[in-house]
UniProtKB/TrEMBL annotation:
The keyword Membrane applies. The gene is nhaA. It is a multi-pass membrane protein. Gene3D superfamilies: Na+/H+ antiporter like domain. It catalyses: Na(+)(in) + 2 H(+)(out) = Na(+)(out) + 2 H(+)(in). Its main location: membrane. Belongs to the NhaA Na(+)/H(+) (TC 2.A.33) antiporter family. This is Na(+)/H(+) antiporter NhaA.
Amino acid sequence: MAFIRSERVAAFLLLAAAALGLIAANSPLGPALMGLQDAHLAVPGTPLDLSVGHWISDGLLAVFFFVAAVELKNELTVGQLNSVSKAVRPAIAAFGGVLVPALIYVAVTAGSGYENGWPIPTATDIAFALGVLAVFGKGIPSRLRIFILALAILDDIVAIVIIALFFTTDPNLPLLALAVVGVAVFGVLSRLLNTRMRVLVIAAMVAVALVTWSLVYLSGVHATIAGVALGLAMMRVPAMHLRHHLEPATNGVVLPLFAFSAALVAIPQVGLSQLAPPFWAILIALPVGKLIGIALGGWLSSFVGPRERRPVLSPLALLAAGALGGVGFTVSLLMNELAFAAQPEVADEGTLAVLLGSSVSIVVAAVLVSRLAVYHRRLRVLRSAAEQRMRG
């Protein structure tokens, strides 16, 4: 299973699943698959009754958010974001990468009634961004990868906050309070994993996690937030071990299955002029807004802090980081579902725009990252030759 942990493999599976979903939806199998996606599965004896599609986006995707939260906690405590000085520069770039796409979206949809979809182009798919970097970025300095990793993690924080604040309506506070208790109990249990009661503790943690997820879902808050809260509450060391074991499942099953389900939309049989404003807003804001926002934010961040401690990122490196940030996929697709839940036709067009916009970003990022990699490989060769001459 080690190969599934590869960033390249994860990116390929995600892209292949999205393409397969889009192809299947527009084939003779499309109606049957969409019918299956809408079929409801209830848990006997509980108020839980979700469609297959929602079991995937609300249930399975919570596992992905759990893994993301564990990585976030690790970076905030012992990793690349464990101090203000380390976090401030990617934070400024991440802010630009959220603000500019949102402004572009609002500008394009102004007066259309679809302005509430502004969060859709603000998200970055960390797995895909790092996958593209791994495929095309051989020889790129580690500082760029660290910058992009920190940027994407901070982007995830913003996405989590947006989902919690803007896609929650009339939450059931008593159920939410019980969910908070469940998160606290989960955190306490994780501190008992090194005792002799390990097996019982694991069983109890699984039960508490399932109950907590159910309470969050029934409270009206998007259920993926339960995954985030549980990931942040768990002790860091055992959480990192669990993340390691869950990674093949998230890369090989959860994310591809979500991508397939989210991309299962029929291509609208309408002219370009009849497409809703969100389609054009997302299509422009993802590749263009992210590139401009991240590159501009990264450039502004170069003026922050003592001169001798400022990272040296060239304009090409910042543009490459911006293009990688425009690969939305997972979280953008989720936000699209949430924003246009009551308007399925618009949601379908939004899905196509996310896929197209992300594809444009992938192509642009591949070109820029490849050029950057070639430059650094040549620079390394020149430096090596210069050192050899000095020794001679």
